[in-house]
Design brief:
The complex is a heterodimer of chains A (97) and B (143). Helices cover 76% and strands 0% of the residues of chain A. Chain A contains four helices and no strands. Chain B has 143 residues and is mainly α. In chain B, helix 1 packs antiparallel against helix 2 and helix 2 packs antiparallel against helix 4. The model of chain B has no long low-confidence stretch (mean pLDDT 85). Chain B is elongated and about 75 Å long. Chain B is built from five helices and no strands. Helices cover 71% and strands 0% of the residues of chain B. The chains are: A mainly alpha (97), B mainly alpha (143). The interface between A and B is large, with 54 and 59 residues.
């Protein structure tokens, strides 16, 4: 790779920080489409981290699976089911429904 | 300066990996929606794969594990000097080979779980685990 050892380790730490922030935003998002988009951004950060770790074959496999297939699968599941996650459920749901 | 790269930077990188694993396990235990649990499961499996690749990478080992100068028609016998130089600069290829298989198997598992979630929603009309508990067991889901 074109990056010498100090620079590539600093960039690896930067991309892992980016993935940590996006994982937290995925965890706290109530809208599931927003959570899926944050998860795709986290997959981009992991792809760049794999470039820094000198694994070009893994980059070719993971950028198709992580960014493309995961996002398409989750959007398909959300389009067939419900979109919003509720913080608390209201009282009396099990009697009426 | 060398101790800085060894201790602080590698400690920070491994700490972010451990923090992401902790966040995903916490989210899978506490978030009530099943699609959110599925997204966090995908992040957890990718983090495990990334940790396996990261173990095979050591300080100063930064070249891809491909021996230079080898092609289909030109394959000279390498001497020990070339092999020692290659082994001094390349990362460990064994975790990368294992992780290629693990990525594809994780994708198959997630497709199966997504289909199970669609069937659950068609049968019960919700994907919230509190409402699912109330509908499946017949008792109140909240105390």
């Amino acid at each position: 790779m074109a990056f010498e050892p100090p620079l590539c380790y600093i960039l690896l730490a930067l991309f892992m920080t980016y993935a940590l922030i996006l994982t937290y935003k995925t965890l706290v998002a109530r809208d599931l489409v927003k959570a899926i988009i944050y998860s795709a951004g986290q997959a981009v950060a992991y792809t760049l981290a794999l470039v820094m770790m000198a694994a070009p074959d893994l980059v070719l496999a993971y950028v198709a699976v992580g960014v493309g297939m995961y996002t398409a699968l989750f959007l398909f599941v959300v389009s067939r089911t419900e979109r919003y996650e509720q913080e608390k459920i209201e009282r009396g749901v099990e009697e009426s429904g | 300066m060398d101790a800085f790269w060894n201790v602080f930077l590698w400690g920070y990188i491994y700490s972010t990996v451990i923090a992401i694993i902790a966040l995903t396990v916490y989210g899978m235990a506490t978030r009530p929606h099943l699609v959110k649990k599925l997204i966090l499961l995908s992040i957890l499996s990718d983090t495990a794969n990334l940790l396996a690749v990261m173990i095979g990478m050591r300080k100063g080992f930064i070249k891809p594990p491909v021996f230079p100068g080898i092609s289909y028609t030109n394959h000279p016998v390498a001497n020990t000097t070339q092999l020692a130089k290659f082994a001094d600069t390349a990362v460990d290829p064994v975790p990368q080979v294992l992780v290629v298989t693990a990525i594809v198997i994780g994708l198959a598992v997630l497709v199966f779980l997504g289909y199970v979630l669609i069937l659950l929603y068609q049968k019960y009309g919700t994907l919230d685990v509190r409402l699912l508990e109330a509908k499946i067991t017949g008792k109140g889901g909240k105390k």
